[in-house]
Amino acid sequence: MKHEEVPARSGLLDAVRRVATDIAAAHADDVDAKARFPIETLAALREQGVLSASVPREFGGAGASLLEQAQACAVLAQSCGSSAMVLAMHYSQLACITRHGADSGFFRDWMRDTVRRQDLLASMTSENGTFGDTRSSICAVRVDGDRFALEKDATTGSYCAHADAILVTCRRDEQAAAGDQVLVMVRRQDCTLEQTTSWDTLGMRGTCSPGFKLAAGGDARQILPGSFADSSAQSMVPTSHILWAALWWGIAAGAVQRAAKFVRGQARQRPGSVPPTAQALAHLQVKLQAMKQNWVSAARDFDAAAEDREDLMGMGWALRLNNLKIASSEAAPQIVHGALQVVGIGGYKNDSPFSLGRHYRDALSGSLMISNERIAAKNASMLLVYKDAI
Ligand SMILES: Cc1cc2nc3c(=O)[nH]c(=O)nc-3n(C[C@H](O)[C@H](O)[C@H](O)COP(=O)(O)OP(=O)(O)OC[C@H]3O[C@@H](n4cnc5c(N)ncnc54)[C@H](O)[C@@H]3O)c2cc1C
């Protein structure tokens, strides 16, 4: 079965494939060169209704499964890694709302409205002083009557300046411990964002992720019901790790496609012979396939167990997701590196049709996006007590 042929209940994949080939591919180099937001791609995704694809059907959405969302991110990443990362981050925020907000009238209305509006959701978990630990906050939400107020000094806020709303982690109240967090939906029109750092990075330049000081207010019902401990473990972590793995695979697959085109060109120059580079390409396909099976199986298992919230809180599942994140973020740059060895100088040049610089630089972000060492440290302590094979 080809990658694109997994049954598409929602039509999401067809829509994203059109946007990827018609729009994202054409603008990816400019987005990268100027470190600018991929506005054309996001406008096209909105037009196709892609941003609300995972909203349940009962609220007017397409009810796309996580596997479909992952495939969409993988397809888009083959054309533009930054656009795919924006879509992946948006979907992981949306998952928190669809899976934890359905008992709230405010979030039910928001879901119905977003199908029409196609809101883009950003995430603000990082904070100056928490050192990359998403599960602790310094800032706290203050509720007064039916209103909330919140300030946060975030180290990294992808596309916050372009989003319609930001999901912000913070302590439940000013007395709460650092790990007693909630998730607050901050609407763009209800906040000020003061940019505190730049975003002139090696890769993922189109995600536009500088630091921001946020000051916000709003309706207290915009605080997502329940704890962030639950929405993080049951929704944000699984969906982000699976969607990121899918898009990192897409970046690697895009690089291998360029290398394959190069090798076929070599073969055409010497009909009847197999160029030596074809063998290196064959080895890359082995790695690519293994990488893909990892996120596809995790997405399938998540879809099968999506409502089994206890299972999603288990140590075995946490370890598996952490391993998926570490393995995929390590594999992607290695595969792109292999593609570069196949193509040679044509891949190293920025102005060649086989250029692999953007793929390489984008792929390098994976291991930093929640540090692999930080995740390995969590695994290490879990493995002291977890004895089953994973
Ligand atoms: C493309 C991109 C987009 C992003 N978008 C967002 C966003 O939209 N919203 C958001 O909130 N954040 C975002 N981030 C931030 C990201 O998810 C991390 O929170 C941030 O990169 C962590 O920063 P850090 O590397 O300085 O911190 P740390 O995680 O503290 O790592 C610093 C160093 O300490 C090491 N280290 C940390 N813990 C341990 C440990 N236990 N054992 C051993 N070594 C350890 C690490 O390996 C690293 O060398 C984004 C990052 C990237 C790359």
TrEMBL record:
The keyword Flavoprotein applies. It comes from the Bacteria. Residues 242-366 form the Acyl-CoA dehydrogenase/oxidase C-terminal domain. SUPFAM superfamilies: Acyl-CoA dehydrogenase C-terminal domain-like, Acyl-CoA dehydrogenase NM domain-like. Keywords: FAD, Flavoprotein. GO terms for molecular function: acyl-CoA dehydrogenase activity; flavin adenine dinucleotide binding. Residues 12-103 form the Acyl-CoA dehydrogenase/oxidase N-terminal domain. InterPro entries: Acyl-CoA_Oxase/DH_mid-dom_sf, AcylCo_DH-like_C, AcylCo_DH/oxidase_C, AcylCoA_DH/ox_N, AcylCoA_DH/ox_N_sf, AcylCoA_DH/oxidase_NM_dom_sf. Its cofactor is FAD. Belongs to the acyl-CoA dehydrogenase family. This is Acyl-CoA/acyl-ACP dehydrogenase. It comes from Ramlibacter aurantiacus. The lineage of its organism: Bacteria, Pseudomonadati, Pseudomonadota, Betaproteobacteria, Burkholderiales.
